[in-house]
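Practice record 12: protein with flavin-adenine dinucleotide.
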Amino acid sequence: MKRCTLSPWLHQLHHDRPAVQLAASHDTDIAIIGAGIAGISTAYFLLTQTRKKVTLFEATRIAHGATGHNAGQVAPYFEKPFSEIVEEYGITLAGQAQKDVLRARELLKTIHRAARIKTPLVIFPGYAGCSSIEQVLVHLHNKELRKKAGIVMDKIYISRDKNILDRIPAKYKPLYKTVPKSRILKLLNTRHHHYIAALQTTKGTLNSAKFCEETALFLQKKYPSRFTIFEHTPIKKVQLEKNRAVLFARHPITCERVILCTNGFEHVKLVNKTGKNIDKAFHANVYGIVSHMAGYLDRGHEKPNAISYFDDKEADPNAAYFYLTRRKYEYEKGKHYDLVCVGGPEYRLREKARYHREKAFHPAAERTIKNFLKSYALKPDKPDYKFFWHGLMGYTKNRLRIVGEDPCNNRLLYNLGCNGVGILTSIHGAKRVTDIILGKKLEPSIFDPQNLACPTKK
Ligand SMILES: Cc1cc2nc3c(=O)[nH]c(=O)nc-3n(C[C@H](O)[C@H](O)[C@H](O)COP(=O)(O)OP(=O)(O)OC[C@H]3O[C@@H](n4cnc5c(N)ncnc54)[C@H](O)[C@@H]3O)c2cc1C
């Protein structure tokens, strides 16, 4: 039987909320394309910090992209290890980016409060489990570098085992604490004995789709004359002209500036009438990865958690990476459970292949997730799965979000490049793009679009 897909995040949206489509030509100051968390938070900062008229165009419905199909972990790290970012961009830019992402968590809290969002944003200590000494050394090195940049954001617990401790250089001693193995397994909520260390970072959980829906409704109410949303309105082409940009949809749209918040460069043709061809420079730099997740309801009422499990790739090249969250969840009105979500299995989308959100859940992914839970988790024995879903992530080649003005034409801006971890970077991108539009002088950043063309920038 083919498994239909539905995420717990879309399940909680208002399914009878009316959608307005573009029905005539339209003129605005700023056009945002894409109503995921990047587009919605960009609209939030533009409306609250400028006097501009803002219009949001969404191909389907608000938050039905990655924002409605993710794991909903509010995590302050990047898709790739901090040490790699330092190697590529130097300690100053890498450190600044880390501070920006931590600040984005505060911005998220601010939006949550100011827009009186009801969907819970819960912040708590989350964990990542390491199963090899190499992984532990990477985390220790990251921690050392972050400390150098003036950032302390995690704790490292290592199993009190002589064989492991003997292999850790003495310089790292102040950076970790030793604990009995049983404590590591308890922190990671697993019975698998191959975990030798646990990294603790402040994480959180959020239904980012519901957050977007509520924020959009708040903005529509607060700025009725300056904010418009058109759903079911895909933009096919963006043409950058000397004095304006023209967007091609069912009806023509004109604007001063346009911001792509489309996750990747999904189906938008970019034409620059005043300079170099933009299509070639960027489109080839984003590829798609489809990731699979499942969720079950539990009456356990335990503390929330967010845990990543890294298996030893050296010992087994097919070793997997899984992530698990537990949070309070209202399944039906007034019926509260713990929702446990697990993700991991992913595959790369073939070049030029189209991703279909409605596509059935991959049976192999379902088996992999179920086997993981059976063999790893402390409980339960027979989860009652309510949700299976997959989501598309636009991966940039340098695995960092692209935020800022297009190097060929500053009428076009980006806040995209979803990658695997993107809630907080989307919010940072939203604030930075707004600051650019406000004309603020900003320091260079690892997220600058030109870094994709020439990534080494120490
Ligand atoms: C399975 C999975 C798990 C994840 N887990 C986490 C996690 O735990 N923590 C975390 O921080 N991040 C996670 N992410 C990543 C995170 O969800 C994304 O980085 C974030 O949601 C990206 O938001 P976005 O607004 O950039 O993109 P999206 O949410 O994809 O929004 C882009 C929108 O643009 C629209 N669009 C595209 N083209 C057009 C067009 N031509 N015209 C009009 N509209 C268009 C799309 O329909 C879509 O609604 C995960 C992603 C996936 C898929």
